[in-house]
Amino acid sequence: MKITIIGVGLIGGSMALKLKSAGLVSYVFGVDQNENHLTEAKNLGIIDEISSLENAVSQSELVIIAIPVDAARKILPSVLDLINDNQTVMDVGSTKHGIVETVRNHPMRKRFVAFHPMWGTENSGPKSAISASFSGKAAVICNREESDEDALKIVEKITKNLDMHLIYMNAEDHDIHTAYISHISHITSYALANTVLEKEREEETIFQLASTGFSSTVRLAKSHPEMWVPIFKQNKENVLDVLNEHISQLRKFKSALEKENYDLLEDLIRNANKIRGILDK
Amino acid sequence: MKITIIGVGLIGGSMALKLKSAGLVSYVFGVDQNENHLTEAKNLGIIDEISSLENAVSQSELVIIAIPVDAARKILPSVLDLINDNQTVMDVGSTKHGIVETVRNHPMRKRFVAFHPMWGTENSGPKSAISASFSGKAAVICNREESDEDALKIVEKITKNLDMHLIYMNAEDHDIHTAYISHISHITSYALANTVLEKEREEETIFQLASTGFSSTVRLAKSHPEMWVPIFKQNKENVLDVLNEHISQLRKFKSALEKENYDLLEDLIRNANKIRGILDK
To answer: Which chain B positions have a beta carbon within 8 Å of A195's beta carbon?
Structure first.
């Protein structure tokens, strides 16, 4: 299968590497605004050819849009304008309601599959791409009834070759769940980094003392605003809802400490411990 | 060297394994209130002998106290009562001001070294002990001037054999830094787990969708209250100080989203990104 990757960064690059090594994809056209990324991706064997959008799409069975969610919403209609009924387009964005709304009335809507692989790291760019990355993780297809059966089949095959398990969901539910499971983690991590940077002026001490616990909690704070501002923007209502709940949960810890109510503190911690039973299933 | 480990859990057990494999320690007496832990530790080769406190201490050059910080404060004076000038006692607790105050006027104070290895996981018990755990991490000795030179030498040798690098600090500074670097991470992680458990009633969805980002941010929420309530209690003022700052940082994200001020949101994220430069030094 010949494919086009629009956006040869962490996600697009990792998908290309994995799908090539799995033998499903024989040739990858790379399209990106960032010429350095294109050259890097070519040198790393992620893509086979640097191409214009029109040329790439015209020769591809499948087009994967792997750019920030605001840019993906902008480019998707133009990509659908370029394809025929034998071609399929998928995205990989972390918000889904906005993008399915954008093309709801597009004549080629049925050739688009709204997709979200639940994997990422705090890094970006083709150099961060890892072939084994998606293995064992979940991937979501949203609003499957709005896509053609054969387009869904292709994306299901892609999922299988990424070694991911597939979940079907409507776009609104997806965006609520990702606010809980992914987006809020980034905000707490950013806020934690800003807290430490604000309070702890001795950078050398942070570096020396930073324990494994701190590093893992604050890891996501390294994630770039180019990717995350558009996600928060598109999922604003859900993210605010969860953020308000999170602040109110933190206030319970604050109140337990202020009132020296250590039984309440223990109850709060025991409740949080339940996450072990859920995550370690 | 023959040593006693009081508390054969994650930290005590990991230290015993590492120090034995490094060849520094030849024999380990295990003391613990939890008889199952003692049996497990014996079966796992972490300790050589299950013993009473008195018997163990009488035959040990070094006593390592590796129990929750409130229990450590209680037991330390009795251990110092049992030793002579050729024996050394160290703790491994995550708060240091309380414990050094407890023994400030003890006649054997100089045989005690206040120690904190900056490593841990969300797990507990001897089964979680890992020999390689401490490698490359920082360890802190507090108030070195209150300990005898030869007692310090022994703990420095222990640190070297754990493959850790040593930092000296006074106990008050240590407790301020650990509030920033370790204790607040646990509170945010607990609060995040409680947020998700409160908002996301569909446990199956959490399990299926939980991405690597979520798992790493919420990992610390699995940590037990038996260890953490005493830490928050002993470091209450510093933890509250950092927690207030953290809530105010989260409010900035909330405000930026509510006002749709995406330039501010980007600034907040760019500032948080600076943690990369510090952590990846």
So the answer is: 180, 184, 242, 245-246, 249
